[in-house]
Amino acid sequence: MNGRYKTLLVLALLFVVSGCGGEGSEKELTISAAASLQGTMNEIKKEFEKEQPDVKLVFNFGGSGSLQRQIEQGAPADMFLSAAKENTEALSKKNLIDGEVPFIANKLMLIAPINKPCSSLETCLEVSSRIASGTPETVPAGKYALSAIPEEMRNKSVYGKDVRTVLTLVEQGSADIGFVYQSDVTTSKKVTVVEEIKTTEEILYYGGILEKSSQKESARQFMKFLRLPRIQQLFAENGFTPLTTQQIKQVR
Question: Are strands 79-82 and 203-209 parallel, antiparallel or unpaired?
């Protein structure tokens, strides 16, 4: 009887220790995010994890349309940060995410190699044989760029899976010009901005929390964190456009 009692006591102690370890264990927040956010999100990750040491951010970067499809097909994620509202909106309509919130803005730029600059959109299109942009069906920047390229010149198009691929194509000389976000240009010393491309709609990034997420509270905290003034300033230092005061006040 005494031996049995000792065994039960040991098991009980192990259970308590195990339980205590579980409460203090690190939470993992998996985020599918637009490729154009990559550099900045690596900085934001450090800031957020300093304040929330029990939460680890894990990112999956790619074209917003591709990430949308992955989520629709059941890919594991807690949050979706898209470069366009239409992608989060599509998931919201399917009850896969809980609403959409804008968290930063951007601008579309025409770029050229720094050693082969051209003077304007019109002249660049005329002298270029390869025009790089994101695949319009899956990359919001590619869809925005499409309206700037005359239909008769679209046969010159070279498509990238995301804006970072487009930037690389121009850097390596595989394309004569390309359409990327302003935030992408800040990461490169091999390209120059020809001009800003005016878009018919404001380029706003939206975030949404997946309905199936088991980390909704951490996801809500991170969404609020992205909209803090000091984090908006960090975005600005990386080429993004901070939200207006009115946009900041919007709540889910």
Answer: antiparallel
